[in-house]
User: What shape does this take?
Amino acid sequence: MKKAWSKKNLWESIPQPMKNIVGKVFGVVPLEYLVGKKFREQLNFLQESQWWSYERARKYQLTKISEICTLAFNNSSYYRNLFLDCGFHPRDIKKIRDFQRLPCIDKLTISKHLMNMLTMSIRSSRVDYITTGGTSGIPLKFYINSSRSQIEYAYLVASWQRSGYQLGDTMAVFRGKLVSQDRSGVWQEYDPVFRQQFYSTFHMSDIDMQRYVEHMRTIGSCFLHVYPSSVFNLARFLRRNNIQPPKNILGIIAESEIVYPEQREMVEEVFGCRYFSSYGHTEKLVAAAGCEKSNNYHVWPTYGFFELLDDDDNPVTTPGQRGEIVGTGFINTVVPFIRYRTGDYATYIGDHCPECGRNHLLISNIEGHRTQENLITRDGSLISWTSLNMHDDTFDDVLQMQFYQDTPGEAILKIVPAHSYTKDSEFLIYKNIGKKLGDNVTFTIKQVDSISLTNRGKSVFVDQQIRPVN
Assistant: This one.
């Protein structure tokens, strides 16, 4: 399979000594010019469009929905057949409800029909191969535009700006990156171009976190860019040991996991600054960013078309009502995701925010997306499942997976193998996951026929039988 390589991937693959040299050369160039023209144009567009009226945003969405459906009808045999079976043609889309006549698809649909959903050859240089664990424990594999990085980064930066972040500000990052240990024993690396100070979420013992905190005090004003689970672990450490947090942290930006209200409250209390969060997924369907003035999420109307559906597949329109998030992405034109069930749930708040004045969809209480599940190391520290999630071919030959743990520092990785699973597949899993876990957790692979679901029909990534010490 073709591995996804973007400019950012290539930059991250450069050895640290070379990064330091290159950083001295490019460090004086404004970051927006290093990232590229498409990024600058997209960021300017987002800074304007987030204040559009409801009517203007809706008109834009209708145009993009028509475009993605037309592309799918003309170039994808799966969608052409689906549309014809439904008596649907993209030219008939005059209102949103015309589009909502189409049935929803899900992860199983993508798995069964992927090659027929393509709108272009996977051999094209414009196509990347992607995998994601998702929320069900079943790896999802698909293809996406290789040119997406600048657009995606613009959405991230536009979202982060609501926290006070400005492009070029330093970030202290706890988000699953593999880093080396420096001479003083700190697991850290610095990216001089993106001004990101990375710390290891695979080494979160009290000694490690003490070193991280002391190191952060030396890097100047910064924002924490974190998994919710990693910043929660840091906050618990500080509170447990009565240690004052670094005064140079301006705000906290949390992504990729659910943010639980009680954790947000505790982290803000410990660090003494605002905890900001966003919602998104690898499939590039919908994106939402926290409001500056509340803990609700504003859905970006230009990223994709967002729907909340109740148990009868009707649109949720009553404030306070919950529904499943269904998305139609505007970014991925290689494999269109049209009315895709995410398995995530949220509460509908309204179409206008009285706090900030934005006039697009407002939601809260997102659940189901990459829940915070942890492995426990020999010394009792935690490794988030999100840190272990792979976006390459590691689990290509696996239908479903789950860690089981009842002993600190040891785990069993249960897998349901595909017909293509071989000893080479097993070796690749041991190699890539073992590289991330290091000596902190040893694991063995156990092949099983099935993995039990929760009462809500989902798998957990870590069947954790150990209660961590608070």
